[in-house]
Structure formats: C-alpha cells, structure tokens
Design brief:
The protein has helices at 3-9, 13-34, 53-69, 102-107, 176-181, 185-194, 203-212, 225-228, 231-237, 264-271; strands spanning 42-44, 50-52, 74-77, 81-83, 92-100, 113-120, 123-131, 136-141, 145-150, 156-157, 170-172, 197-199, 217-221, 241-243, 255-259. The chain has 274 residues and is of the alpha+beta class.
C-alpha cells in the first residue's frame, strides 16, 4: 500500500474533527427548525421511548454525509442501527445520537443536543456535543484538546475543576429511578449526603458541565453507547475521568460516571454494589 493510499484510508484525526463539526452544523439546522414546531411528529419505538421526525431527519443527514466522505467507516446510530464498515473502516465507527434528550425536545425544554463520536478499535477518540437551543457546542479529540463555544463565538479551552474533597463537590445524579432500578439507590443517596450540592441536571449537559469545571461529578444508569461515546473524549481531554459506574472503561457497559479525575476513585468506591 502506498503512503498516499494509506493516508486516504486513515484521515488525520484533525480532519475527522473538522468533518464532525460540519456534521453538527447540518444537524443543528435541522433540529432547531423542528424544536417547538406545532407539527412535530412524535411516535413511540418498540421500547416505548419517544422518537420525533427530527431525530430521524438528523441521523439521516449525518449518515448521508458520512457515506459520501467516509464511505469505508462503520456507523452506529440510535435510530437506524449499525452499518458495517469496509476494509480499514472496520476499525473506525461513527457513533451518533441525533437528539440526546428527546423527551426534553418534544416538551420544549432546551436541554438536548446532537452527539457525534468516532471510535477507533472501540475507543472513542473524538466527540462533538452540539446544543443549539442552549446556544453552545463542546468538542474534543485525543491529543487535540477540548473546547467549547457559545453562539458560534470564539472557542475556549475546557478544563475540569480542581475540587479535591467530596464535601466541596457538586454532583448531578440525573435520574433517581435509574439508580433505583440498578439497585444503587442507597449508594447514590449516601453520595448526595457526602457532597456539597446534588442536582439532577440530566442528559448530555451535566457531563459537559463536568468538562467545563462547573460541576465535579455526573453519573447515571440505563444508557446506550450512543448516549456516551461523544462525552468521553471531551471529558478526558479536559482532564477528567470517564468510566462506567463500576469503573469499566468506555461507553459499552450501560452506565456512565464522569468526574474531575481527582474524585473518581472515591466516588467509585461509594457507589459500588453492596
């Protein structure tokens, strides 16, 4: 294989990030146009979770662009499942949540966004979280740092907090029923008593607030890879830690725990199954 062919099949991560940001631009244009639309079409999936016409339209637009520009790569999306890659693309998978926070979206709550990730050999190395109703976007890629911008303004670097004591920390537990269903309600209640403040901010925003250093801990159960893959590179490039609630690496284990890194092991110890 020539060097030129190798380069064509393995784009630099910076080029992948530029593409992901362009995908987010296209997604935002579709989703914000349908937000609070009077004719929004809402149906239920087999698992009884809601889906809107905007969810499907956003994912279709992203898939179409990837088919044109990264045809060898695999895709995992919430609405249309898995498409296998070809050749070297079997090692590269784009992971898409077209609208994370669909329940908020359909009720007119602005906490929702499009999540776009690239995983190489199952490790997320790039993430973009775009929340047009909040007017903010976050992104990061391995070795390239993590950034945010508001209303399309100048990018600023992200950095997690330096809080080192639980008694000074802010926690977003996101969903008490989720912790209860997982058999960890007692543990998370104990954690809320140990921290300074506890809130249920919800969906992708709580994790981005960890990356910004505004809160220190976010975690929940009942998640899919497309709910988490874009979050991991942003949080880690901002200096934080990301794992399952049981400490397993990556977005493949059904739960998420993000911290500023300093508090990660202590939080894992406190929320361990008993």
């Amino acid at each position: 294989m020539t060097d030129a062919l190798h380069a064509a099949e393995h784009p630099p991560l910076a080029a992948d990030l530029a593409l992901a940001l362009a995908l987010a631009d296209a997604a935002d244009a579709i989703s914000i146009d349908r937000f609070r639309a009077l004719d929004l079409l809402v149906t239920s999936k087999p698992d009884r979770t809601p889906v809107t016409d905007a969810d499907r339209a956003v994912e279709e637009a992203i898939r179409d662009r990837l088919a044109a520009e990264r045809s060898a790569d695999g895709i995992l999306g919430e609405e249309f499942g898995t498409s296998a890659g070809a050749g070297s693309g079997t090692h590269r998978q784009w992971i898409i949540d077209p609208i994370d926070g669909t329940a908020n979206f359909l009720r007119g709550v602005p906490i929702w966004g499009t999540l776009i990730a690239l995983a190489i050999d199952t490790v997320p190395v790039l993430g973009v979280v775009s929340a047009p109703a909040l007017g903010q976007r976050w992104w990061g890629a391995t070795g390239l740092g993590a950034y945010t911008s508001q209303q399309g303004g100048a990018a600023r670097p992200l950095r997690v907090s330096g809080v080192s004591e639980l008694s000074d920390a802010v926690l977003s537990y996101n969903s008490l029923p989720g912790w209860d269903d997982a058999g960890r309600l007692e543990q998370v209640i104990d954690l809320t008593r140990a921290v300074w403040r506890a809130r249920a901010i919800g969906d992708m925003w709580s994790y981005m607030l960890v990356a910004e250093g505004a809160i220190d801990i976010a975690g929940e159960f009942d998640l899919q890879p497309y709910d988490m893959a874009a979050l991991q590179p942003i949080i880690e490039e901002a200096g934080g830690s990301f794992s399952s609630v049981d400490g397993e690496p990556g977005p493949w284990h059904g739960s998420a725990l993000a911290t500023n890194g300093i508090l990660h092991e202590e939080v894992l110890r406190r929320v361990r199954a008993r």
